[in-house]
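Let us work through a complete example step by step.
Step 1: write down the sequence.
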Amino acid sequence: MSALNDYDFPNLKPADAESAGIQLRLQAAEEVLGFLDAQYGDPDEYLLFEDRVGYLDSDMAIHAFHIRYDHDAGTIRLRTAAQPTIALGMAWLVEHGASVSYFVQHGEDQSTPADAKSAAIARRIIASPGRYDIVDHGVELSESWALLRDSDPRAADRPYLLHIEHIRDEGGFTLREGSFGSPQEAQAWLEVRDRSLPAALAADTVVQVSAAASAARSRSTSAPTVRATSGVLPEPVRVSAVPAAGGPHR
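Step 2: predict the structure and record it as tokens.
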């Protein structure tokens, strides 16, 4: 399924150079990106896609897009980010004003948590902007993983959270997680996998939406309409600002 065929934006022009570039990439990738989910509203739309062939020249599989319509000015503003997992892509959309509850509802399609445990983990990841930094990530055919540094003081003893996402053939995705004391310990577990993931520290599921996300949602004039490689980086990248980049990832 693709939601891109409606995004020629007749009678609207990009609000800035960044929006113009993103629009061109959307149009060029119409037949390539795999549609995952969307939340539609006015003046905002939130879109989530998977790029299985690296068409957008990124080493991250998930691409999130935020579209803001300004009909009075006759413009559209587009922003995008690449993320290693569906849950992190949803977190970026929520930080830009999307609804937490929509993206963690149960369902049978590829973009929804497949079980209660996955839904609880996803809710915490999605609704905690600024809490996690991406330290490392990798993508296989059915598995994506991200090593996150948790800034919660309760996770200080083992601050590196390994976040593993599997997309199921029968629909939905599962999430599992475990805490480690260092990136090296997490990578050693990934290579061998001879024991269960250690319990995740500070793994509560209290929803805390940032002030920025609340402000973004308050700018909407109506409620959104719901429609059903690795190697540790020298410096972590803030989850809220992972850019769409470039290079096949699969």
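Step 3: interpret the result. The longest strand covers residues 62-70.
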